């Protein structure tokens, strides 16, 4: 059971990394980013390419994936999202289109396959990442088996959650983001550059998705459609925790991760998935705005 709880913590940590970016972006910009899962996928492929061509290990790929995905997120915000503010369903359809484009770009190796140029690590095939040796050797404490890589995932997620909290509650840019979450028009009237803050917020959320992709590449096969289900899982965490609530995202990811791990231990992954959805529905009925949310007047 301790092993199961530990696995549940690692699952919850991945969900947290995915949900943090979604929660901040939706809370401040009102954008349902359907391409968020594909940004996770891009982070995983960045790890594959960095390992293949640059000789980077998984540790070195983390900052690289953050930079690549943050830059891609900034580009998406500038070219697509910025033109669709306050149009919720339009942004949903537009980002869904971006998600399809990113998937096909990987499958077609960014169009280079038409010219007979093959990039190893891209294409429709399955890819894998080699873990550093220190991450593959389990050790025991008493009767408890500690898996180094899952421990690493939990530590990275905790560190990024603390960093996100610090940025949101102890910096000027975080104060501006929280002001925009409450009332974007009043924030703009007070002199906050809403477009600039939104662009940086979207880029940061995309960077977190890239780090989640690096973490997932260590224990899951890397493929073009690996992010499709993750965006659903991320929004489940956001809805349960409360839109824009950092504490809510942390608590919700822990609850859903543990629930998935424990139920899967006693039954199977399919039943665990069904139980998670049933729990989310029950929580939404009980708390329509999530477990934690801003109190409005």
Task: Please describe what this structure looks like.
With 297 residues, the chain is mainly alpha-helical. The protein has one domain. The chain has eleven helices and two strands; from the N terminus they run ααααββααααααα. Strands 1-2 form a two-stranded antiparallel ribbon. It is globular.
Summarize the structure.
This protein has about 300 residues and is mainly alpha-helical.
The share of residues in helices is: 55-70%
In round numbers, the mean pLDDT is 86
Main sheet makeup: 2 strands, antiparallel
As a whole number of angstroms, the C-alpha radius of gyration is 19 Å
Strands of the widest sheet, in order across it, are 1-2
Q: Which descriptor suits the 3D outline?
A: globular
Judged by helices, strands and strand pairing, the structural class is mainly alpha
Family: Belongs to the binding-protein-dependent transport system permease family. LivHM subfamily.
Keywords: Amino-acid transport, Cell membrane, Membrane, Transmembrane, Transmembrane helix, Transport
GO molecular function, one term: transmembrane transporter activity
Membrane topology: Multi-pass membrane protein
Q: Which descriptors apply to this entry?
A:
globular; 297 residues; two-stranded antiparallel ribbon; Amino acid/amide ABC transporter membrane protein 1, HAAT family; 69% helix; transmembrane transporter activity; amino-acid transport; 2 strands; mainly alpha; 2% strand
């Amino acid at each position: 059971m301790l092993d199961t709880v530990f696995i549940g913590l690692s699952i919850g940590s991945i969900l947290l990394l995915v949900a943090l970016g979604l929660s901040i972006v939706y809370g401040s910009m009102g954008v349902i980013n359907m391409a968020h899962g594909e940004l996770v996928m891009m982070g995983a492929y960045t790890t594959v390419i960095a390992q293949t061509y640059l000789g980077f290990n998984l540790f070195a790929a983390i900052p690289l994936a953050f930079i690549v995905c943050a830059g891609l997120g900034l580009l998406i915000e500038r070219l697509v999202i910025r033109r669709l503010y306050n149009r919720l369903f339009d942004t949903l359809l537009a980002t869904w289109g971006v998600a399809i484009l990113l998937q096909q770009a990987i499958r077609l190796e960014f169009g280079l396959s038409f010219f007979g140029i093959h990039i190893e690590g891209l294409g429709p095939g399955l890819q894998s990442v080699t873990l550093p040796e220190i991450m593959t050797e389990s050790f025991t404490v008493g009767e408890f088996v500690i898996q180094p890589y899952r421990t690493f995932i939990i530590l990275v997620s905790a560190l990024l959650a603390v960093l996100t909290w610090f940025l949101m509650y102890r910096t000027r840019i975080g104060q501006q983001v929280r002001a925009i979450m409450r009332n974007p028009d009043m924030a703009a009237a007070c002199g906050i550059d809403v477009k600039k803050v939104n662009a940086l917020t979207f880029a940061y959320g995309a960077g977190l998705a890239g780090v989640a992709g690096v973490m997932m590449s260590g224990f899951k096969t890397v493929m073009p459609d690996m992010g499709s289900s993750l965006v659903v899982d991320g929004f489940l965490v956001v809805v349960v925790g409360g839109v824009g609530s950092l504490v809510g995202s942390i608590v919700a990811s822990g609850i859903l991760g543990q629930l998935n791990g424990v139920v899967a231990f006693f039954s199977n992954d399919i039943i665990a998935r069904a139980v998670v959805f049933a729990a989310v529905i029950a929580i939404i009925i009980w708390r329509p705005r999530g477990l934690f949310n801003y109190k409005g007047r």
